[in-house]
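Technical note accompanying the year-one report. For the benefit of new consortium partners, we illustrate the data format agreed upon in the data management plan: each record pairs a sequence with a structure-token string. No post-processing was applied to the example shown here.
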Amino acid sequence: MNVPDIGAARRRNRRAAHLFTLGFLGLWAIYGQIVEAYIMPGPEIVAIRLYEFFIDVHLLKHMFWSFAHIGGAIIASFLIGSALAFLAFYLPLFRLMVHARLSPFLNSFSGIGWTLLAIIWFGINDFTVMYAISMVLIPFAIINMREGLDSIDHEMIEMGRSFGRSTWREFRLLVLPALYPFIFATLRICFGVAWKVALTAELFGGDRGLGYLLNLARQDFDTPLIIVVIIVIIIFVYSSDRWLFAPMQSRLARHHAAPN
């Protein structure tokens, strides 16, 4: 297929995607006219509520609290998961404990379970939310960092040790640069998963955040606000992945690509 054909195919794909979006909005508008607004409000009602959301300081505070919960949980889970992966890598005595016991256990335990336990242990507060999110993300960090450590060329490490005996220099100049793609992949995965867990954690164990806002909207049968919260999350997650994570991953892929 030549270049003009590729361009034409892309234009057809965009038109098909736009038609799908317009068709979805049309069906949504028709259904919104048939049923009561509290069951499914139409696009125009949701659009007005979306505008009101972004000019209401009280509602925006809940959005920023969700950002804080997720940011704090990602940092905590990445540091803990990486520390455990490094522990198993540098001290083989702990390898079975981390990768065959702890990681499978954390990976199989549900987010709602951690949330309910955190409510009993810590009460309803911000720490409960971040704790529940972190416990779900830690196994992702362990698994990804383990893959990165296992992919390191051990001959390169041995060669580096032959030029010096500083473990810190070896880590900083050889190990850490080799882990950059895996560190980025870990953060990208954790960011996407965190949003799925955060709403549940805030819904049950938080006193602020978008999940807490969803709970209030449910109690008031404020369906437009529920849809607005969903739209806000979709916009933020999609925009972050499209305009932040994807370009950075592309740059890392080019930088770490194997030479021909």
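Partners are asked to follow this layout when depositing records. The chain is about 85% helix and 0% strand.
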